[in-house]
Amino acid sequence: MNSCIIGLQWGDEGKGKIIDILAENCDIVVRYSGGANAGHTVVVGDNRFALHLLPSGSVRPNIICVITNAVVVDPETLLKEIETLAQKNITLTERLLISENAHMVLDYHKKEDQLREESLGKNKLGTTIRGIGPCYADKVGRSYALRMSDLRNLEKLKAKLQTIVDYKNKIFAALYNIEPIRADTIFEKCKSYADKLLPFTTDTTEFLHKSIADGKSILFEGAQGTLLDLDHGTFPFVTSSNSSALGMSAGSGVPVKMIDKFIGVAKAYTTRVGAGPFPTEQDNETGQYIRDKGGEYGTTTGRPRRCGWFDAVAVSYSLTIGAIDSIALMHLDTLSGLDEVKICRAYKINGKETTFFPANTTKLAQASPIYETIPAWEQELTDVKDFHDLPKNAQDYLMLVEEMTGKPVTIIGVGPKRAQTIFR
Length: 424
Ligand code: GDP
Ligand code: IMO
Ligand code: MG
Hints:
The chain is 33% helix and 20% strand. The protein is α/β, with parallel strands linked by helices. It is globular and about 65 Å long. Magnesium ion binds next to loops.
């Protein structure tokens, strides 16, 4: 059985928690897109892990962890993560595979991300400054890109780096008037990446197809969310990869036909970090209530997340383009204590009602949400173990989500811990 977990909103839906739970019955967990812009939280007992590049299955000692071709690997962040796990006696030796064809995020990518955002001022995208856009741009441009396999030939790498850094320095000087970056400093770092990461670097496509032939059970871990997809999200306020279900196949080299089940993860409300239209945003007391109660501050950047009501139009779009089978609805506990809860069932755009999400940002910015409102519940949900023990209003809320999205909510999150999860 192979499954894929996909974020149905603008990221941070709680994918890390679901992956960690489902990994218990799997052999392999695969990260196939994005980079260290992701921040996936896994809570095990008193330990809280924030994973950026390592698959969220990595905290379970028997899971094989794979990072495939379309992931942009920041070796520095990855090494830090491996070290953090080692400090908790979790070793990745013999169970981490990194694609030799994955591209590397190096210092100049992060610099470029930062300089571009700063120069855009109030028009910035609000990226995570993890060098994601610049690295993917180099990959698509091809001439100035470096892959993990380039670490295998340090002499060649040195020459390539010099060419790239000369080129970048010309751009940095012309556009941003900054001191040149040094190729030799980056090269020294690359030598240490080679020592430490080459033992993990291999052909992950071959490994995954052999594993499938051997009947292994694989869990594919989506990063970001469908609405941040480069081609199908709210461009330009998106990330630089195909973060919807559509990216799973291209990112991993495993055809979608081989996936038995796609599970979409959404919050019982909506959050977004960074800029861009957000029709159900509550930039008010309700939004603040959700932010405080849900701990809605970025896992990667610590930024306060923008909060708003559940948007069934947006989620239905993600379910549709991903052919998603079922929903894991997280953070139901966060809505306890509100007077009422709302779900957006349609948009009004230029006087016309629509239930199909317009990914076009100009149209989306004109959308005013049409809500269904139901009374909320006082009771805290963090100890509830069974759907039938949820307050009636919370049950009604879940059923309304199912009705509006047309998909079953089979997993319900009532807290960050593994045990705070209801299966239906
Ligand atoms: P991801 O990027 O999709 O993996 O999500 P993040 O880890 O960035 O953000 C989700 C946050 O919500 C983390 O702090 C989780 O520990 C937490 N979390 C996950 N599920 C639940 C839930 O059902 N209830 C509550 N209160 N917290 C949750
Ligand atoms: P996970 O996997 C939430 C957002 C950034 C910004 C936009 C572009 O934890 O759900 P980038 O650095 O990718 O160029 O930033 O995308 N973004 C995320 N938001 N969760 C994420 O990942 C995100 N990864 C990128 O905030 O708006
Ligand atoms: Mg996150």
